[in-house]
Write a structure and sequence with these properties.
- This protein is α/β, with parallel strands linked by helices.
- The chain has two domains: about 90 residues, lambda repressor-like DNA-binding domains (434 Repressor (Amino-terminal Domain), Orthogonal Bundle), CATH 1.10.260.40; about 150 residues, Endonuclease Chain A (Endonuclease, Chain A), CATH 3.30.870.
- It has twelve helices and eight strands.
- The strands form two sheets. It has a six-stranded mixed beta sheet with strand order 5-4-3-6-7-8, sandwiched between helices. Strands 1-2 form a two-stranded antiparallel sheet.
- A hairpin with a 4-residue loop joins strand 7 and strand 8.
- The protein starts with a strand and ends with a helix.
């Protein structure tokens, strides 16, 4: 049975999310534990002391950034006054499910730990809005283009051919969702420089642009290009992705990737700023109906 709040079913935890795996489960469980703590009037320091940890550990748990030890969850539930056996069992079962490795676990040898959170969020999202200034988004890359991107990014690390291929395969696996009946919506805005940068050589770029043209025919994909003549992208500063979810317990998340880490923003004030920026970029970009002619023109010039 699902957990309850004040004797009523908590709809946010009625069923495990169909997508996103353990990442989403951790976020939902963490948010639920935060609500229980706040209802109990306890601070993160007091809760941390109860599980022999720090307030920062409680914060990470409540944000869903770490795995859950069943003993810690049990101790917190006791501290928060959750003594109903059905509710406790349901939440402890959720904690166990949240520790189950995601499908990407088999790529753990080539996958940065900080990127695993994004893969879980990406898998749960129903809408992804992304802006790119350097490369074609991973979800829209061909294998050859992805291979060129991976080799460029790991040139100094001297990645082996096998490591490169596994990273490419991971990227291709992420794309499989878009051919499923429940495929999410992808709305991508690319700076024109992305298409002008001859990554991988002439033929690789021509195939990549043709792939983008093909993707525009998909009902769940929208692609726009910000031309060189527009100035809006100069003020953006870098690429970012906004993820939206159908699960009511998950707020929008802004994802920004860095060289050795990533930044996740979910405060409404932060998300609103990036949402307005994305909307402005869409206004500055080509109309979706003009994207294919724009792409064909660039292909003719390569």
């Amino acid at each position: 049975m699902p957990p309850t709040v004040n004797g009523s079913v908590d709809d946010r935890l009625v069923s495990y999310p169909p997508r996103g795996g353990p990442t989403v489960l951790r976020i939902l469980l963490g948010a639920h534990l935060r609500r229980l703590r706040e209802k109990s009037g306890l601070s993160t320091e007091e809760a941390g002391y109860e599980i022999r940890g720090s307030h920062s550990k409680i914060s990470r748990m409540e944000l869903g950034r770490v795995g859950f030890k069943e003993r810690d969850v049990a101790d917190l539930l006791t501290l928060y006054g959750v003594d109903d056996p059905v509710e406790r069992d349901s939440l402890l079962e959720l904690a166990r499910e949240a520790n189950t490795p995601g499908w990407w676990h088999r790529y753990g040898d080539v996958l940065p730990g900080w990127f695993e959170t994004y893969l879980g969020l990406e898998g749960a999202a129903t809408l992804l809005r992304t802006f790119e200034v350097q490369f074609v988004p991973g979800l829209m890359q061909t294998e050859d283009y992805a291979r060129a991107v991976v080799r460029l990014g790991y040139a100094e690390a001297e990645a082996s051919d096998d490591e490169v291929e596994r990273r490419v395969r991971l990227r291709m696996t992420r794309q499989e969702r878009f051919s499923e009946p429940s495929a999410p919506t992808l709305w991508a805005v690319l700076d024109e420089a992305v298409l002008r940068r001859p990554l991988g050589g002439r033929e690789v770029m021509r195939d990549q642009i043709q792939h983008l043209i093909d993707m525009t025919s998909m009902p769940n994909v929208t692609l726009q290009i910000v031309p060189f003549g527009a100035v809006e992208q100069v003020a953006v500063g870098g690429p970012f992705t906004i993820l939206r979810f159908s699960e009511p317990g998950l707020s929008d998340v802004v994802y920004m990737e860095q060289l050795t880490s990533a930044l996740y923003l979910d405060k409404p004030t932060d998300v609103d700023i990036y949402m307005r920026t994305m909307n402005n970029l869409c206004i500055a970009a080509t109309r979706p109906d003009d994207t294919v002619p724009f792409l064909k023109q660039i292909m003719d010039e390569i």
